[in-house]
Specification:
The complex is a heterodimer of chains A (296) and B (215). With 296 residues, chain A is of the alpha+beta class. Chain A is built from 8 helices and 11 strands. Chain A starts with 7 loop residues before the first strand and ends in a 16-residue tail after the last helix. Chain B has a two-stranded antiparallel sheet with strand order 1-2. Classes of the chains: A alpha+beta (296), B mainly alpha (215).
Amino acid sequence: MSNGTLQIKAISGHAGTVPGHDASRDYDVCKLVDVTTCIGCKACEVACLEWNGYPFRETVFDNTYQTMPDLAWNYYNLIRFNEHVATDGTLSWLMRKDQCMHCADPGCLRACPADGAIVQYANGIVDFQQEYCIGCQYCVTGCPFNIPKFNAETKKVHKCTLCSDRVGVGLEPACIKACPTGCLHFGSKDDMKDLADRRAQQLREHTSHTSAGVYDPAGVGGTHVIYVLHDINNPEAYGGLPANPRVPWTVRFWKGPLKWLGNLAMIGGLIGVTLHYLRFGPKQVKEDQPQEGGRI
Amino acid sequence: MSQLSSGRILRYNFAERVIHWIAGVTYVYELLTGLAFYSPHLFWIAVLLGGGPTSRYWHPWIGLLFSAVLFRMLRIWSSDMRITGADRAWQKAMGRYIRNEDEGLPPIDRFNIGQKYFFWVMLYAGIVLLVTGVALWFPERIPWNLRSLRYAAVLLHVSAALITIGAFIIHVYMGTAMVRGGFTSIIRGEVSPAWAKMHHRLWYNRVTGAQPARR
């Protein structure tokens, strides 16, 4: 989703500086998902499809509420239903709205080789620009949350835009509009963190969820989608939310030190063979017959 | 018999030359598009070659062709590429070769040990590139709980590619600038008897029947 109204902070696969960076200030935006008040109505999924203009996908029925098995290139937003048996034997039905987390340190952007295919706006939104996407799917490998999805037909990768086209003109994301329980909130990162902290404290003090907490993982520099969880110590129970997400070290090594080592080796190799030629020159063959030895 | 009526010696037959140049052209395409994806400072190469999506589309297919050619080369050259005692003796004196003091070098067969190492490096790196390349081609086919394979693939693919680039730089330098007559041999297939005697005495003896090969 291209958007001219938002200030750009980082560009994938880009040699040189970010044009216009720091020309104006922007505050960090954040979506807060309070999973403790989610009722799994999937109104956010419908709103997402409506706003982005995608058709409803074919549903599956496997005797659970999970009628959509996974995110898809045209399905950015999915409630994951999980039945979790706690150690004391009590069953809880966990519902988590899954979508792009809009990491402050986005692994997709780090991994992307195409100039401008992934941008990070100054307000924290990480957005794919399909017109520059080359379809390599390195973002799929870079993402610690398993979010980007490839459209094999158009060879482009898609994911939640955090409604950058709405946020850019001062509207809140479509999913927020649709939520009937107030489990979704949108605002500045500071405000949402504050709201989330107070909600988690309320849960700890007034309910049996004594380990309730806010999921804003530091391993990816914090995220611009944060969760209030019943049990902050077990995010995996919510359908594969990683406890400590990080951009894979191989991706960081590949895009960092290995690049410099490789550049040095390649340039060193070229300099090496040039110096060899200057010092020793070519190997000539002394012909023992009157004929040319080395001509085409 | 490899001695031609012109008095020159056939070093590479037509099939070998064709295979070599298919490998060469496909490798250079993989190199250029790969470098474009490797560094933002080289992304312009992808633009020159038809744009990012086009380069990305063809890179794996041309890679498959390169791999197929590598395995074909293995079939036709594997016996010639086996490292022998003569090669090891030659390797001990390799400093002389590098300094162009070729007179005192032990005689060797069709390929010297550097060429053999080049062949095996490209073959094994090519296998790594093929396997990791398929993983990079279809990352979503690798289940999420085996995602460490995706992570390993990106690192191994670029590492193997860098190793081939190092080998490739030396190969091109030696084949064009350093060893005069070498480039002609892979274009027209022929070398002069003096060239063969100087660089590959055992092979010269073997193919001309000049004297029994000392092997």
